[in-house]
TrEMBL record:
UniProt cross-references to PANTHER family, sorted A to Z: ARABINOSE-BINDING PROTEIN-RELATED, POLYGALACTURONAN_RHAMNOGALACTURONAN-BINDING PROTEIN YTCQ
Organism: Rhizobium lusitanum
Keywords: Cell membrane, Lipoprotein, Membrane, Palmitate, Periplasm, Signal
GO cellular component: periplasmic space
Signal sequence, start to end: 1-24
Name used for this protein in its record: Raffinose/stachyose/melibiose transport system substrate-binding protein
Location in or out of the cell: Periplasm
Amino acid sequence: MNIFSKLAISAGMSLLLAAGVAQAQNKTFNIWWFELPDTPQSKAWTKALGELKAKHPDVTVNFELKTFEQLQKAGSLILNSDQAPDVLEYNKGNATAGLVASQGLLTPLDDQFKSRGWDKILNDNSTQLSKYDANGIYGSGPIIGIPAYAEFVSVFYNIDLFQANGVKVPTTLDEFEAALATFKQKGITPLSLGTVDSNGQHLLYTLALTQADDTWVNNYQGLKVPLDTKPFLFAAKKIVDWVSKGYISKDSTGLKGTGGADNLFSSGKAPMFISGTWNNGNFASSIKNFKWSQFVFPTPKYTVGSTGNLFVVPKGSKNKDLAYEFIDLALGKENQNEQANLGGVAIAADPAAVKDELGKRNVELFSNISGKGGLGLYPDWPVPGYYELLIQATTGLVTGSTTPEQFAERIKKPYDDAQAAQ
């Protein structure tokens, strides 16, 4: 080999090396979630993202905050395009994660689940909403997402207003309605509500679960039989009754739960607000003028709630190894303890390491719910498009444009159509 050949090879290797370095330097890891910045989840995941950056200084980490509604409405289109990130938070359930899983848009995670030790952190109960069959029905099939927290709907209440008006924490539905009546007699609208987003349907499903047993919940969430509307009809009648008695304001139809009804509670104007643990961070930082706490709505067994939304890896992810590494960090004991001590419902925290009062309360309440198998999941999960339908139908109950019977009929047909198609 002559000197010119050696120089050419050397130059070629240098170009390849330079190209490789440039490629590494230009590598971008894209991650999305929709938890608001003040939530324990977002704070803990931001810390995990910082750890990932420190481990990979050659990688540009690009985080984007999305909204729940963005992904609810356009998830399939986004995941089926070159705009999909490397990993993102996605809503669990048949109508969302199940739908895109059935379309082949997500990466199966079974191998990673075992090789990375996630199976030592999450048990079968924790991963029932991570698995979807070919029809997108939860509970079996490949693992397509990993939860890193839990959540449940409870009643946030103003301790000061309860004490000032002689109201005790109710333990039955009758006692709850008596509390509503007491506040109304004192000129206080007792229940803050927003029907523009999921808040209204969480109240609806909470009331339906007062009439539900194991068979009904399993049939409803699993699309196993045509819809038995009796629990929903009961709930719809209660909402109409509560509006007529002034327990709920008709102005609720113009409010969101987040950024609307929650503000009525945190400002001290409403003594109660039925919503999820995603409010904890906001309330912990914004409520300064009164004492507040939570109690689980009195039902025989079931509470609206589940393990948290899933971290999913799109089929087209360009940096799957980094996506798996981020999930490692989010599931790690240090990050889980961090989340709990910020007031979150961590799925794998060490109870002895949780010192935060709010975090301890959430761990205790969630343990009581999950310990009796009482996670009733969410009402919009069984059928694609049910989220929007339930918002519209629940709003109709509050405005008076929809009767409880019309409500039940309206939600039955799409459910039965989806069930028959299985």
